[in-house]
Each structure stands twice: as structure tokens, then as C-alpha cells.
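Give me the fold.
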Amino acid sequence: MSDLVSLLTRKLGSPRRSMQLLERNREELGVRCDPTDPGLVAMSLCSLGVPPEAVSALLSWKEFEAFCADLLRAAGYDVRENVRLRKPTAQIDIVATGTSRVLSVDCKHWKRGASSSVLTKVAEDQRKRNELLRRASPGSPPIVSVILTLAQQEDRFMAGAAVVPLFALRSFLSSVDEYAELLVSS
């Protein structure tokens, strides 16, 4: 049993209650992952009030990125992970293509909360990568910058990017058109 599942079981008091919560969260999110997927367990722990910093210490960045990709697939997006760009060289964690938008996603599962200045820098860097992506794929739908976090917080916008906690991803995706003018790279 993973450290994340052990922590969830201790928090809920029994393996049965842990599995019930994981199954319910998996169904609500529409993901087809194993119920003990590290990303799903981490998100479930955060929903119970376990600090994201404690959870992210038990979750690798690869596990976090894979779970973010699964959530976007479940929302109907065509997902490419670890997209490499050239001239100059850059990498985007996830490029998720929908019917009317492309999401350029940077996944952050910081072990500590991020300050406004750190979020602004991350958002500015993501916007620069989006410019490279736009040049590499002319004619594609508008590109929206998104920074996905494990931390439970209100949606925020920094330097033209949406900072979205996983808990708010579904809500954000259903309302992204409302924010398009703030977020779209031309």
C-alpha cells in the first residue's frame, strides 16, 4: 500500500471508507484510472483538509502530471504530454486540444505554497512557451495558458494565465469562454 493510501486510510479510519471515497471521487471526476492512482488519492486527501504541502511530499511530479492529463482526457480533450518545442528549446507539460480551444498546461504540485511573485514568473514563462507553440502550430484554435495546482485555492489569474486548483478544473473548463479575452494567446 502506498504512503498516500496509508495516509488516507488513517485519516478515514478504515480501508473500506478510503476505497468508497476514492471510488466516489473517481466517478465524479469521470476518470478511468485505478482507484488508488496517486493523483486521485492526493486530490482526495486535499479534499479532506490535509495540507497540499504534506500531500505533495508523497506524490511525484510525474504522478501529478499523469493525473492532470487523465482529468483533461475525461473532460473530452485530446491530450499530448511533455510537448517539446524548438528554437528556442522549451517544454510544455500538457497540450490539451478541445473543439474550440487549446490548453497549454503547466502542472505544479509545489511542496510549499507559491507567492504572487513566483506565480507571476511561472505564468510569464508559460506565456512565452505558448508563443512558441503558436508559431509551431499556425491555424490552431486559440491557446489558453493554465497552471494546474494541487493547492486548494480560488481561481486566480496571473500575467494572462489561469492558476487553477485541481478541485476547480471542471468548473474552470465549463466557464473558460468567459475568461477567454484574459487568457488567450494570439
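The first helix runs from residue 3 to 12.
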